[in-house]
Amino acid sequence: MIAIVLFICLFIYVVFISQLIFGFDKVKSFERTNEIPKTTFSIIVPFRNEEKNLGKLLQSISKLNYPTELFEIIMIDDFSEDASVRIYIKWRLENGLIHSTLLENLRLSNSPKKDAISRAIPIVKNEWIITTDADCMVNKNWLTTLDNYIQKNEPQMVVGAVVYKTKNNWFHHFQQLDLLSLQGTTIASFGIGKPFMCNGANFAYTKKIFEELGGFGGIIKQASGDDVLLLQKALLIHSEKVHYLKNTSFIVKTKPENDLFKLFMQRVRWASKTSDYKNNYAKLLALVVFLMNLSLVLGCVFCVWRSLDFRIVTYIFLIKYSIDYILLYKSNKYLGKEKFIVPLSSSFIYPFFASLVGIYSLFGSFTWKGRNFSK
Predict the structure, then answer these.
(1) What tens digit of pLDDT does each residue of 144-192 get?
(2) Which pLDDT band, with edges at 50, 70 and 90, does 84 fall under?
(3) Which domains are delineated in the chain?
(4) Are 336 and 176 in contact (CB under 8 A)?
(5) pTM over 0.90
């Protein structure tokens, strides 16, 4: 009976992941041409205690291959207690041609990042808003590629990819594989016409659609979700205007965590959004993935108790691993183009990690940037 339940979970999981693999290839890469830049952008960057990272982001922005008169930067300091503000001021003095503004966040809700973006919106001068994080670095053709895509396709909201800039250690590679799976799912969901996910470190939308959606109204109570929940609001009204931009110049790089507890809290923060999804497909997919990982964990427990043949769990793991590998390989081919080592150890540990994150996110609070957030 236990084996039958496990194989049913596996069958449903394989159906869903196979659909995503099919969808991934349906999103075609965008080829940039030599259009004259026209689109105006306001880059919004909330930050808190980012003295180690902020300088790298600002330097990457100063190297953008885009006319300085067509973009501005709005920095929102979320009560930093380190030298972040001084780093920004020093950069601004050295890069006077780039219009930039520094604001102090106003805490009005349980979501500091939504408060920060809402704080910036009233002073936004340009047509398009693009958000990124203080621990990121952008490609020199980031805005050029987005402008080119906007001119040709006329979207109102654009989703882009985020990858880790990793060091050569197992812990970083584990995080990269996890992020590759999320990014691959994001791309594939657009391919099958069921998009539901994005990353606020590379997320663009017009001021017009933000105001038309009522901003973060209706999702302000959630501690996270300035990206995914806003995207899902837009999909309910203007799904045809929400696009995925697949081009390597529109990939943002960020830093992986170096601490296991911080990684766990980050993933709990991400997972906590799931219960607030308005997209039924997204909820079902999250449930299927969670149950598949949990079934492997329970399968191992039953093996220890000698209630289940270890070979059954091995077969299930290998089938799951094989289907996951295809999606991860496709994601890495586009996002990383790095040497793709068979991630057996990570794939073995991941079900335990994912199950713990999923269960904890349903009931537990989480800590982020030195603050505690309740469910």
Answers:
(1) 999 999 999 999 999 999 999 888 788 988 998 899 999 999 999 999 9
(2) very high
(3) 2-24+279-360 (no CATH), 27-266 (3.90.550.10)
(4) yes
(5) yes
